[in-house]
Amino acid sequence: MAQIIPPPDTYSLLPPLLACLPTSFASSKPPPSLLELLSPILRQRLQIHTTSSSAHDSWLRLLCWDSSKAERLKEIVENANFEPHPASGELEIGEIERLCYKRFDPETLKAQVPLNDWDLTALYLWCLGSEEGNNWKLAELIPYDSDLSSDQTWSASLNEAEQKALLESLAVQPPRVNGDNKSLSVPVQEEDGDDDYWAQYDNTPGRTPGPQTPARKQSVNPQGSANSDADYYARYGSVQPAMDSYDPDEQHEEMGESTLNGNSMQHTLNGDSYSEPEPIEETRSQQFQDLSKLQIPEEDERAVEINHPMPSSPSSRAGSDTIARLEETADRYSASEIAIKQHISYSVKSMYRLAKGAGLSRGDFEDMIQRELETLSLLDRE
Q: How much is the mean pLDDT over the chain?
């Protein structure tokens, strides 16, 4: 919502200001009533530079920022007549030809009030957030300057000053080039801040970027985009999300067959993972028969050394494997049992906190849990 700025009320602002000017020759400090009429920066200037030790300096010069004009201001005030009107008892400010306004920047708006009868010009600043609210405050008091009064940069109304400031700001900004044709320029307009924010996602690289897919390359190509809104939103279906690590367009290796068997646990528990061991005596006799078939000369029998590991019993080997599997299964079941107990404990604690938050006492909670435990016997019968 645009702020409505009223023009300065000269009949309420100027008389108190003019009444305080003669006190500059009698006191080294400005009166408190004058400080309320000044802008914050001018008020701070007077408070810092006016001290009791500088009695020979007049604070009237501090109302003008130009030192060359400050001496002229002191002479004008010294020769002016500040006698109030005999009928009204107030200072007459005289007729004011016209007020001029100028917007210096988005936060600085000044008004020029020429006082022809006093040979002065008051520059007021529009201040926000003061104790009295938003109001016009004196920014500078200077001698009357005809050049300043006829300056074309000042406007006769507030609306004209705002429009002139807007045109000047647009003229300062560099024009944008229209595509590849550098001879044509497009005036800069205010862009939506949200569009600039979301547009940064296209320029932000991922932490682990992969090869760009054709869909992703097409989404960031400015020349391939359509002008209509329908084509713009239709391209969302072919855009690969930056946070999605899976890309259907990329080639992935086929997964090999797993060596795990789903019924391996059942075979382990049932004891079907090994066959019945053969009799030991039958195995040994078979080995001796195989050795007897070998024809080795007598003279070479002594030189031949049979170097082989002792045959292990199939029953002992199968039994050790079964024991290892059973121990692994027992460890797995014990870990599962501990996890189940912890889950039950956490669930009971969570239910107790919930009941306590609902206003139930501990006795009521224990009775409720006890009743539920008694009903578990019905489940055991099924």
A: 73
Closest to 2 (Cα-Cα) out of 191, 188, 130, 163: 163
Amino acid at 196: D
Q: Is the dihedral of CA 336, 340, 346, 347 positive or negative?
A: positive
Start-to-end C-alpha separation, the chain = 73
Q: DSSP secondary-structure letter at 90?
A: S
Residue entry with tokens 């939103």: 233
- SS3 (DSSP) at 178: strand
CA distances from 156 to 86, 125, 237 (A): 34, 16, 57
d(CA 263, CA 270): 11
Report the alpha-carbon distance of residue 89 to residue 106 in Å, rounded.
Answer: 40
- H/E stretch holding 69 reads helix 67-79
CA separation (Å) from 174 to 169, 278, 302, 309?
A: 10, 96, 107, 92
Using an 8 Å Cβ cutoff, are 333 and 320 in contact?
no
| pLDDT computed for residue 339 by the predictor | 83
By the 8 A CB rule, do 142 and 73 touch?
Answer: yes
Integer Cα distance of 344 and 360 in angstroms:
21
User: For the whole model, what pTM was predicted?
Assistant: 0.46
